[in-house]
Amino acid sequence: MTQQGAVLQGYNNELVKCIEDLCMQKEELNKQIRQAEEEKNKLQHEIQVLSEQLECVCENLAQKVASRNELDKILAETEAAYMKILDSSRTLLNVLKKEVGSLKHSPDLKTHVT
User: Is there a contact between 108 and 114 (Cβ–Cβ < 8 Å)?
Assistant: First the structure.
């Protein structure tokens, strides 16, 4: 019986050792879980901050694109108006040259000029 008691005591000691090892593994896992949860929370916060920044940048970009499009429209209208002014100026200059040329050949002008 004493030998059986010693064997039983050996099993008991081994069982206690296994339970202690499992408890230590559980504590290590709990520590890793807490660290992972902290990292997850930190990353989620960073994602939230970056999402808000991205939203602001997108709004700002949309406003700038709209402003650029409006400037493109104004610039195109201004260039078209300027081209009309140039064309009118060229036409006016041609008419004026023709009139001056015909005045030079007019007999009335020749008598008054000399």
Answer: no
Using CA atoms, how far residue 3 sits from 6, 10, 30, in Å, is: 5, 11, 40
Amino acid present at 79: E
d(CA 36, CA 24): 18
pTM above 0.70, yes or no: no
Query: Strands (DSSP E) along 3-109, which ranges?
Result: none
Contacts of 109 (CB under 8 A, 6+ apart): 103
What would the pLDDT profile of 46-100 be if each residue is shown by its tens digit? 999 999 999 999 999 999 999 999 999 999 999 999 999 999 999 999 999 998 8
- Max distance between CA atoms of the chain, in angstroms, equals 159
Asked if residue 109 lies in contact with residue 103, where contact means CB atoms within 8 angstroms, the answer is yes
